[in-house]
From TrEMBL:
This is S-adenosylmethionine:tRNA ribosyltransferase-isomerase. It catalyses: 7-aminomethyl-7-carbaguanosine(34) in tRNA + S-adenosyl-L-methionine = epoxyqueuosine(34) in tRNA + adenine + L-methionine + 2 H(+). Its main location: cytoplasm. The gene is queA. The keyword Secreted does not apply.
Length: 343
């Protein structure tokens, strides 16, 4: 149902340059229309509010040694200033109490061992000092479908949004990668409001759904924050007739986690593991700007829930036939919510 075959040649290895020169597929009840990201202001109305995720990607992939054995960690969820959950390779021989050294003066202790290669590690420092050590010794964790996940110096800028502010993500909120200062200024001139929220995207976002029943899939939790000011701005815009436009599935998931049954967005500061599949009733978001996602992924399920499975399958077929570029560095689409497919 959520599977499709994508030619390898359509997976983008590098972003469009400049960022806002990417293509954008407009998906609505009227069908699909080929547009460009620079057309975004004309697709929105004065009074609409765009919600951006201002998380900043950290160099969350580390190579270390447990004794003489090599270990690679990919951090994915911060527990506190010095403690993180991580995916380890290989994880089989790791035990609680093991020390992993990343440099002569930088190490971590395994505190817990979970399922599917997950471990909890506590570093020998926290806060600003830990972030500095990650900048020195870590690597950006590119998704595995881009150059086998191996980032280079160019990715340090490319795989970061222009509005990234808050350290903590291990994957970029990729819909935001299309924005330039010029595009943001054009949206301002159009009268579109802008609001920032924070969801620290985890590496679990790359994992495919391997079970037949989506009820059996376990989402990895991610930390999100919606400030009181942001919640108020979103609610006021909607009350005045504006539409809420989520920039990326991360912003959408956070807004839906923070919204009540009445559709009002409340201040929020907690982990969320919301898993949205067809049949979900959306509360807060009216339009979604997002990239093209992997088959059998939770993100393709989410966009199918938002715009309708048949509509998204048709849109993806059009995108593939038209040579759109897929995944994190690829092109974009702008989706209307399809209430007919919701409970």
């Amino acid at each position: 149902m959520f599977d499709f075959d994508l030619p390898r040649a359509l997976i983008a290895e590098r972003p469009a340059r400049p960022r806002d020169s990417a293509r954008m597929l407009r998906v609505s009840a009227d069908g699909v229309k080929d547009r460009g990201v620079r057309d975004l202001p004309s697709q929105l109305c004065p009074g609409d509010v765009m919600v951006f995720n201002d998380t900043r990607v950290i160099p969350a992939r580390l190579n270390g040694k447990r004794g003489t054995a090599s270990v690679e960690l990919t951090l994915h969820l911060r527990e506190d200033d010095s403690c993180w959950r991580a995916f380890a390779r290989p994880a089989k021989k790791l035990r609680p109490g093991d020390r992993i050294a990343f440099a002569e003066d930088f190490s971590a202790i395994v505190e817990e061992k979970g399922e599917a290669g997950e471990v909890t590690v506590r570093f020998d420092r926290g806060g600003v000092a830990l972030m500095a050590a990650l900048e020195t010794h870590g690597r950006l964790p590119l998704p595995p479908y881009i150059r086998h996940g191996e980032a280079d110096e160019t990715d340090r800028a490319d795989y970061q949004t222009t509005f990234a502010r808050t350290d903590g993500a291990v994957a970029a909120p990729t819909a935001g990668l299309h924005f330039t200062p010029e595009l943001l200024e054009a949206l301002d001139r159009r009268g579109v409001k802008r609001v920032a929220v924070t969801l620290h995207v985890g590496a679990g976002t790359f994992l495919p759904v391997k079970v037949d029943d989506t009820d059996d899939h376990r989402m990895h939790a991610e930390i999100g924050v919606v400030s009181a000011d942001s919640a108020q701005a979103i609610n006021e815009a909607r009350a005045a007739g504006g539409r809420v436009v989520a920039v990326g599935t991360t912003a959408l998931r956070l807004l839906e986690s923070a919204a009540g049954e009445d559709g009002l967005v409340r201040p929020y500061a907690a982990a969320t593991d919301i898993f949205i599949v067809p049949g979900y009733r959306f509360r807060a978001v009216d339009l979604l700007m997002t990239n093209f996602h992997l088959p059998r992924s939770t993100l393709f399920m989410l966009v199918s829930a938002f715009a309708g499975l048949d509509r998204m399958r048709a849109a993806y077929a059009h995108a593939m036939a038209s040579g759109y570029r897929f995944y994190s560095y690829g092109d974009s689409c702008l989706l209307d919510r399809n209430d007919d497919d919701q409970l």
